[in-house]
Every structure is written in C-alpha cells, then in structure tokens.
Amino acid sequence: MHLLSHIAKELLLLSRDRAGLLVLFVMPVLLVLVLTLVQDNVFRATGETTTRALFVNLDAGELGVDLASGLSATGMLELVEAFAGEKIDLARARQAVFRGNYQFAIVVPADFSVVIAAAAESAARATLRGDSVEIKPAELQIFFDPAVRGVYRTAVSSSVQRGVISVAMANRSTALMRLLSTDLQQQLDEQLQPYGASGLVNIELPEFADNWLEQPLIELQEESAAPEKFPIMPTSVQQNVPAWTLFGMFFIVIPLAGTMIRERQDSTLTRLLTMPVSIAGLLGGKVFAYLFICLLQLVLMLLVGRYLMPLLGTPQFDMGTSPRALALVAVSSALAACGFGMLVGVVARSFDQAAIFGSVSVVIAAALGGVMVPVYMMPQVMQAISVVSPLGWGLEAFLDIFVRGGDLSSVLPQVLTLNGFFLLCMVVAALVFRRWRQGA
Amino acid sequence: MSDSRQQHVIRISGLTKTYPGSSHPALDHLNLEVARGLIFGLLGPNGAGKTTTISIICTLLRPDSGRVEVLEQQMPTAAAAIRHAIGLVPQDIALYPSLTIKENLSYFAHVLDVEKGRRAERIVACLDMVGLAEVAGRRIDCCSGGMKRRANLAVGILHEPQILLLDEPTVGIDAQSRHLILEQLRQLNRQGMTLLYTTHYMREAEEICDEIAIIDTGRVIAQGTPKQLIAGNPACESLEDLFLALTGKALRE
User: Fold this and answer.
1) Closest CA to B42 of B138, B146, B167
2) Which structural domain, as residue segments, surrounds residue A55?
3) Cα Rg of chain A, angstroms
4) What is the predicted ipTM?
5) Domain holding B215: CATH number?
6) Chain B residues in contact with A439 (beta carbon < 8 A)
C-alpha cells in the first residue's frame, strides 16, 4: 500500500509549509494562553478572587473605616484609598473610574457614621416599642465605569452589599443590645421595687458578646459534584485547555484540505492515480500523517496547560485519572478532525474555498460545540443544534476526563460518535477518489 | 496469437467517450494500434481527443464503449497490471513544488514499486539522463521551466515502463531543454521503450516520430510515417501543411 511512503511525503510537505505549521502549532498555543487567561480574569471579576476598587472615605466617624474593613474581609475586594500616598478625593476617584483606570469607586459620605448611628438607634427603639420601623438610611455611592459589563457590575455590587450588611447588622445589634439592657434594667427595677428590701434588686443581667452577630448561622459551601475519589477542581484551565486544543486540532482542516487541492491543481494526484497505488493507501497516508500532527498539537497544548499556564498565574492543568480514556478520546478527536479535513479537501474546488469554508465551519462547530460559550448557557434551540458538532462531542469527552473524573466507559458514546463521523468522511472521500480515477 | 497482434502494445477499437454535459463526443469510435518499439505521435488540434485517449490508456478515464488492450491486457479488468507497465509524463508539471527534485523522485520510486535495492541507482540514472544530477537537491519551485519539464520526464521513466505516454512534454521550454528532452526520448526508444507522444509542434513530431496518427473530432483521420503522410498529399511540403490541410484553419476552442 506504500503507506509509509505516503506518510513520509505528507510530513515532508508539511515541514516545508511554514504557514501551515504556524496555523497548526502557534495558533492553538496562543488560543489556549490568551483565552484561558482572559476567561480566568472574568472568573476573578465575578467573584473568584480579589478585585481592585477605589474607596473614598469622607466619613468623619469610625463606621467608614469599619466598612472598609468589612469590605476587605469579604476577600473579594482590594480597596485603594490613596494615589501615591495621597488620599483620594471624590473628584479624582470619579475621573479615574470614568477614564477606565478603575472599574468602580465606593464613596462613603461625610455623615455616614452619624446617619447610621441615628438610624440604628431609631430602629432599635421602634423595635422594642413594637412600633413599625421608619428610618433614614445612610447613602453609599458606587461609581461604575460605563464600559463595565452587567455581570461584572452585579458581582461587585453583591460583594459591596455583603460588606454593608455586616456593618449595618453590627450597628443595629449594638444599638438594640444597649437599649435592651437599659430597658430591661429599668423594667426590672420598676417591677421588683416592692422586694427591694429583700435584696432581690441586685440581679446581674446577662451580657451579650460583642461578636454574637459575626458568627454565621448558615455557611455556604461550594463543592464539585465529581466523585469523591476525583480530586481535581473544575477551574477555568481545566475547562479551557481541552476546548481550545480541540479548536486548534480541527484547524488541521486547512493544511490538509489545502494539500489535497494543490495535488489536484498541479496534477500530482492525476499522476498518482495512474500509478499502481491504492486509494486506501493514498488516503491512509494523509490520515496517519495528520493524525500524528494532531496528537503532537494535543501533547503540546496539554504541556502548555500543565507547565506554562501556572507561570502566568493560573492553576496547573491536571490530566485526569484515566490515561487510557484520554488516549482514546485524543485519537478519536484527531481522527474526526482529519476526516473533516479530507471531506473539505474532496468537496472544495479551490484552496481559497477550502480555507474559507474550513475555517468558518470550524469556528461555527466550535461555537455550537460549547468551546466559546458552554452549551448549557445557550438558548434551547441552539442546545438542540449543538449535538451535531464534532467539536462538541470531543469537548464533552475531554471534560468528562478532566473535570468529571470520567473513564473509558463514560467517554465511550462520544468516542463512537467521533469515530463514526471519521468513517463517514473517509467513505465519502474514498468514493470521490474512486470517481476521479475512473473519470466518471 | 498472431505475430502482428504481439507486435502491437496498444490496440484500441471503437472507442467512444462523451463527457457529462457535452453534446459532442470527445472520442467517436476511435481505432488505433501502436506497434512495439515505436515513437508514435498522436497529433490533433485542441479538443481533438488526444488527452482523452491518453487518459483512457493510462487507466484514469473509463470509456463509454469500445475496447482497449495494453500489452495484451484488456481494460479495465487489468487496470492494476497496466499501471505497472506504463509511465506517464503529463502536460502539467505533476511534481510537489515544495519538495526537491530528488525527494520527488524518491517518493514516486516508492509508489512505482521500484525494487528497494535498485531505487537509489534508478534515481541517479534518471537524474543523469535528464541532466539534473547536479541540482537534485533543488526544490521544484526554485527550478526553471526546462528543469521542471526534465524532472517531470524523469519521474515517468523511474520504473522503466514498457510504454511511455507523453502529453506535450516540451511545451513552454527553451530550445536547449527541448533538444535535450528529444534526445533522451530517442535514447529511451533505442533501449526498447515504446513512446506514445502528443505535441502541437509539427516539426518536432516530424523529426522524432516513427509513425503518426492525426486525429480530429475524436476519430483518426490519417495514419502513417511522416514521409508516407507527406508523400500521400503532393500539395503539402511539410507535416504542418498536411495537418492544416486535414484539420482546417479554423480556430478551435
């Protein structure tokens, strides 16, 4: 079948195609690096880690400082209160946010402590009297950069809200406890006055611990639904590395289809078809050569995730717990990518057609398959359509291994679908080659 | 089997072929016999059916009807065996542009099943024959038109085929390269190879071919040695005169 000769020739041709190699290796590395880092930052902005914010404290009292501590204590906000050692005023803060240097600023008004103390006192008195509570709240301002997206704004608002609640609750409880003690003592004195002579007046009232409100009654614990034996946390790296690696692998369509079209255009295919070669050998040579390239891409991407990404501040990529399942999914995905390349190579009539159709179809398949936006976040109609994307099948299988602790049995459906797609593409390619040889 | 039958390496009878979408047949009951050891010229204007005939002989195209025998083996049943016995030098430079001349020859030597022990020797011999030994490491896309034509020829003869089909092998090259190629074709013929050769250069055909068939609208309209054909038409002084007399002066598409 001359398989080895065909493979060697394909690899030699690829090694001379610098633009093709650039597409195959540099582009996926850049995709994985840039998009994982970008998405990692989005995760951070939506509450995974600290976000920097300007904090303008105009309050004359202590509550402004308490609020700053409360906000910092949430662990999600890093407050910036001074520029080069100089305390930030309202105008500078507003300008810095408007220019986009910071995404938002929190401004504590001058009467913050006074208003909150008065409000807490009024609320406590009304509560003890059983009256309805009507208080004038303190106003805390947050200035947002107009370019900030809604999700980011919501995440930051909820972080500030958490800090504000803790300050408000502390003040309410302090006022309530203080009034409660005084009120209770007063009522006891009044009620026990007749027995004062017997010495019952010196009752020691219970004291409330200062931090009784700080102890949460409900604690929220976030935990992965993966099996207990599976120790990997679902980070943006675990989800992005396989997604963009698959995207890069499917870009093999362009050089593969391009080689096939060039062979047709410069008549080397015509010459080959007049020689004692089998169509299976011709197609097999291409598949094995490009399969090897795809697997090289995959290994490179996984190594980037494991060793390069941590240097840029992301968590280390974990390869999962089933190397056999990983190998099977890798080969099946690579075969599907090669099959798609062969299909485009026999259907397209020119290199331009193959390049445009190949790249656009891969981007569409990637979008449908959940590479860019998770399938579960898509509208129902798109979720239904997404099942036709080979990238979606591959991604589902990779995520099974990398974030769900999947093994051979759990990835089998996707593996079968990927290989079925590959076989279908190869049958079409073989039929077209046969037609070319027989000049039908 | 008669002697006359054994002498013919290609026997074509009643060959027809109409391409899909075309109202006129490319080949219309074409009959042709090529004797062993000849340089046989297949001449005709554009669209006469030369390339279609060669494509059918080299197993690339299936005829609508008719009988084709190559080396006494019938098409299409013996297509695989025929592919081993023929060599093709197509009109286009059918080589990988980003590979060197030697890499191209090496790949095609594998594909053509040249014996492993003789592969290197055959590559060197073919490179020597077409005068490319000193530039064997040059990429095809860095070669001149003449070098590409010679490399194209070298691939066709790597496996020492019994029949070499050449589709306009000297188109678009300078006089020196053309002279060298024609010289090599004569040498191959002297070694016993049968050559079926198409060209638009009448003087070249007159100079090199032992026998010529002129075809037009898918049929053979004249066949014989160049001298016989010219002698049979007293008004014609050259093969070109004869060709124009037979096929007319109207432009073809």
Assistant:
1) B167
2) 50-198
3) 33
4) 0.89
5) 3.40.50.300
6) 55, 60-62
